[in-house]
Amino acid sequence: MKKIQEIDNFSYIISLEQIKRGIEHEFHLVCSMDALRELPKRLNVMEAKKASFNGNLKLQAANQIFLFGTVKAKLIQPCSLTLEPVVTNIYKRITRTFFIGKNENKPMKKSVLELTEKSFDNDIILDDINLGDLFMETISLETPDYPKKSGASISLTETESINRENPFSILNKLKK
């Protein structure tokens, strides 16, 4: 049986202890009405019809948690060409790996932080995971910046042709 929970203020925190007890934690989150009203302000869209985040967190090793999930949303945006409403459906499968870090205040030996392509594949967590942050991050990355209504195009028509005098035409008159 699925236990559906409403997410409000885009915050749904799961503690590490909760995941460690059950080894696998299944979640089914839907946006509350208040969150759906807040979503257009955060994403700069006209309206949010629905949004949900389903998946599970699985303890893979003593210090590693995998997240497998699906984010779905239905947003209304203005067409970038005609400004008419466009329905944007978001369906994104996400996978993440979280490493459980230690809460130690040891100074870093290196003063230069090296970022590689692998640096962005894994997240380090200390006490808990906020699924609301992952939810908002995915929706904001998947929302098109310039949505276009199907068949919309820009048609440029010429206005009256303006006869402009050549600036050197005055010189021709002086020669005479």
Model description:
The model has no long low-confidence stretch (mean pLDDT 78). This protein has one domain (4-103, 118-151). It is elongated, with a radius of gyration of 27 Å. By secondary structure, the chain is α/β, with parallel strands linked by helices. 21% of the residues lie in helices and 39% in strands. The strands form two sheets. A six-stranded mixed β-sheet has the order 1-3-4-5-6-7. It has helices at residues 16-22, 33-43, 131-142, 169-175; strands spanning 4-7, 13-15, 24-31, 47-61, 64-78, 85-100, 122-125, 128-130.
Topology of helices and strands:
Elements: E1 4-7, E2 13-15, H1 16-22, E3 24-31, H2 33-43, E4 47-61, E5 64-78, E6 85-100, E7 122-125, E8 128-130, H3 131-142, H4 169-175
Parallel strand pairs: 1-3, 6-7
Antiparallel strand pairs: 2-8, 3-4, 4-5, 5-6
| Count of spatially separate domains | 1
Could you tell me the strand content as a percent range? 35-45%
Average pLDDT reading: 78
Beta strands, count: 8
Percent range of helical residues: 10-25%
Order of strands, widest sheet:
1-3-4-5-6-7
- Specify the overall morphology: elongated
Rg over alpha carbons: 27 Å
Termini separation comes to 97 Å
Number of helical regions: 4
How would a crystallographer describe the biggest sheet? 6 strands, mixed
- Uncertain runs are none
Throw out a few tags for this protein.
176 residues; alpha/beta; 39% strand
Summarize the structure.
The protein has 176 residues and is α/β, with parallel strands linked by helices. It has four helices and eight strands.
